[in-house]
Design brief:
Largest sheet: 4 strands, antiparallel
Structural class: alpha+beta
Number of helices: 11
Distance between the termini: 88 Å
Radius of gyration: 36 Å
Oligomer: single chain
Order of helices and strands: HHEEHEEHEEHEEHEEHHHHH
């Protein structure tokens, strides 16, 4: 089975549920117009066109139009191969007879002294109900949103693979005014986003994994949430393993350094004093160290039947003795040279 990236997986789950209530269909279409819609205005008519490379999104948008206006619609497909787009482009043209009603019903236009004006942000009536606000965000995410998670750690046999090196959720929006309106809508659900200018778009983004998970939970994308939770838990476990491993490596380094220092001290004592002249407990410790150069204090404590503190004290005594013998030898050599 072909693997899906996380972004596609999330969008597929959202698109698997079609809107049935009229208010939610209007909210879906309002976001779709802002995201992938365009208007062709002439003296005789106004034509609304939806274009996207996501067939399921155009199909869901056509479904919402049919639910509201009971109109027959066709989806056209063309091949594109430009710098920005490659593949198939799906186009949904709204009949001129219902375009004006659709624009008014979705809050895109409003009556004013000159006839009609265009809403800069989001008409509050369209997202007044919670269900409508959620459907607006669903449509907007599929139209101009994207999401990513760190590479999945669970294994190659899963049907989904992720992209990127971190968590992110973002919307590429048309202008500052609209970005501010979408940000406010998300804040109503305690989803806090930030904005940045990227090319000719204002990008509203979220980086916190818990917040992104809450966003998909809000949209009812339960499989997406579960998938994210899998990743978050596994990353936490993996980080804990890494921390434990780092500590173990650090401890191994300390043991190696201590062992090397002790063996050098033993060689110094043997050269300038003689191991055979030492007390039995020190000779026993020396023999164990030479036979077990990587052993820890726990090992010696168990073998000798004493505490780690006692082992450590004996090693310090050997190192101190070696230092004194080395100093005495250097002093003697220096004195002979002066004579």
């Amino acid at each position: 089975m072909e693997k899906l990236n996380f972004n596609r997986f999330a969008k597929n789950e959202i698109l698997s549920v079609l809107q049935e209530d009229a208010c939610c269909c209007a909210a879906w279409l309002s976001a779709a117009i802002k995201g992938v819609g365009s208007l062709k205005i002439s003296r005789s008519k106004t034509e609304l066109i939806f274009e996207s490379q996501d067939y399921d999104y155009i199909k869901s948008t056509a479904h919402a139009v049919r639910k509201l206006y009971h109109s027959e619609l066709d989806i056209d497909v063309t091949s594109v191969n430009t710098g920005l787009q490659k593949g198939r482009l799906y186009t949904l043209k709204i009949p001129a007879g219902i375009t004006d009603d659709l624009l008014k019903d979705t809050g895109i236009i409003y009556p004013d002294d000159d006839g009609y004006g265009f809403t800069d942000g989001i008409d509050n009536r369209i997202v007044f109900n919670e269900c409508c606000a959620k459907n607006y965000l669903k449509s907007l995410f599929v139209a101009v949103g994207s999401a990513g998670v760190p590479e999945k750690l669970i294994g190659a046999d899963d049907d989904i693979e992720s992209s990127g090196s971190g968590y992110y959720l973002e919307f590429a929006l048309s202008d500052e005014s609209y970005a501010s309106a979408v940000r406010k809508l998300l804040l109503n659900f305690e989803i806090a986003g930030k904005t940045i200018e990227r090319g000719n778009k204002i990008v509203l983004y979220v980086k916190e994994s818990e917040t992104i998970s809450n966003f998909f939970a809000l949209l009812g994308a339960n499989e997406t949430v579960l998938y994210m939770q899998d990743i978050m838990v596994e990353r936490m476990l993996n980080n804990n393993v890494n921390r434990k491993s780092n500590c173990e490596v650090a401890n191994m380094d300390k043991t190696a350094i201590a062992s090397t220092k002790q063996i050098i001290a033993i060689e110094t004592i043997d050269r300038y004093y003689g191991i055979g002249r030492l007390a039995p407990e020190l000779r026993e410790l020396i023999n164990l160290r030479l036979d077990n150069p990587t052993a820890t204090l726990d090992f010696f404590a168990e073998k000798l039947g004493v505490s780690k503190s006692c082992v450590n004290h004996r090693f310090r005594k050997l190192v101190s003795m070696a230092d004194e013998l080395k100093k005495q030898n250097e002093a003697n050599v220096f004195g002979e040279k002066n004579e």
